[in-house]
Amino acid sequence: MVAEFGSLAAFFWSYEPDPSTRPVPQSQTTSAESVALSKALKKRGWKFVGPTTVFAFMQAMGLINDHAVGCFCRERAETARSQFKVPSSRSEA
């Protein structure tokens, strides 16, 4: 993955959901992106990376913000995300 994308971070961030699909409902436990990332990881030999586990990872890393609209954390997370520079892949460099 590092050889292909330049870094593991760039690989993971390449699965960030399109901003137009936000907000993610708070009750959601998977997404099309978590399913795709799960499949990509399994294809590369990773274990214990099902869509729900990957979705939780994506939440923790800031790729998905499922705080309810109006929640004070949602705005903080959106502000932090807007200030974060997504790692670029080798193909974008």
CATH architecture heading = Orthogonal Bundle
Mean pLDDT, to the nearest integer, reads: 88
What would you give as the CATH superfamily? Hypothetical protein, domain 2
Rg value:
14 Å
Termini separation comes to 16 Å
What is the level 1 CATH name? Mainly Alpha
Strand content: under 5%
Give the biggest beta sheet.
none
Could you list the spans in which at least 5 consecutive residues all have pLDDT below 50?
Answer: none
Features:
mainly alpha, globular, Endonuclease III, domain 1, 93 residues
A few lines on this structure:
With 93 residues, the protein is mainly α. It is 48% helix and 0% strand. It has a single domain (2-83), classed as Hypothetical protein, domain 2 (Endonuclease III, domain 1, Orthogonal Bundle).
Describe the structure.
This protein is mainly alpha-helical. It has one domain: Endonuclease III, domain 1, CATH 1.10.340. The chain has five helices and no strands. Helix 3 crosses helix 4. The longest helix has 12 residues. The protein is globular, with a radius of gyration of 14 Å. The model has no long low-confidence stretch (mean pLDDT 88).
